[in-house]
Design a protein that fits this description.
CATH architecture of the largest domain: 3-Layer(aba) Sandwich
Strand order of the largest sheet: 3-2-1-4-7-8-9
CATH superfamily of the largest domain: Dipeptide transport protein
Distance between the termini: 51 Å
Largest sheet: 7 strands, mixed
Helix content: 25-40%
Number of strands: 12
Number of helices: 7
Radius of gyration: 18 Å
Shape: globular
Amino acid sequence: MKLYISVDMEGITGLVDKTFVDSKEYNYARGQQIMTDEANHVIGTALAEGCSEVIVNDSHSKMNNLLIERLHPEAQLISGDVKPFSMVQGLDSSFAGAAFLGYHTRAARKGVLSHTMIFGVRNMYINEKPIGELGFNAYVAGYYGVPVLLVAGDDETALEAEELIPGVTTAIVKKRVSRTAALSLTPEKSGQLLREKTREALANREKVKPLVPPDRPLLTIEFANYGQAEWAHLMPGTTIDEHSPTVSFQAQSIVEAYQAMIVMTELAMKAQFC
């Protein structure tokens, strides 16, 4: 049995602000270590529970945060940027399940360091349904018939996961106080929790169904300002709303929508606020 693990950073134990998740900031090295430790708790438990192969995808920022020299030796790591499928690079139908670690809530929703891909996204939709990184990634997993078995992050992320994926196991390593403050477990306690929840998720895997994406999904992204929308609209096949900073793309499949989202958000980051 193969397990796929996507590891973001904002939902990791004790990480509450940009000083932990930005490589230029003073707490970043601490964040890397805790992030790597959390991945190891899940990897080691999964292998002990019978998984034959574990692939880990570093899914934060430039995607080179996990410390490979400290990662469980039996895991394999996908790291670096550019990746054609970003946070779900390498995910395909050969996996029995997926785990999302260090995840956060979508933009415009309560939660520690909530956002969707870039901080310039106000809202993102698939067929008018609000979606964030968690949901979009789960849809891609579902496209390949892979269920998301475990989601770890703050309490608001657990709620978002449970709304999307019936039967999913969630591990709450911290509780939101504000967008940049949390009541957090210690790394030792969160490690115990992650090991317990990994065992629970694998034991319950037959009860969780893949999140099946819609056919020919309509992707819509509402940006923070019109300049970002103008940049995103440079992608062929998009339409822009003349009255709001919103750009849409009619995709043929969820994987095409996912790559369109990557291109549109990358273009939008070129816009300046002043």
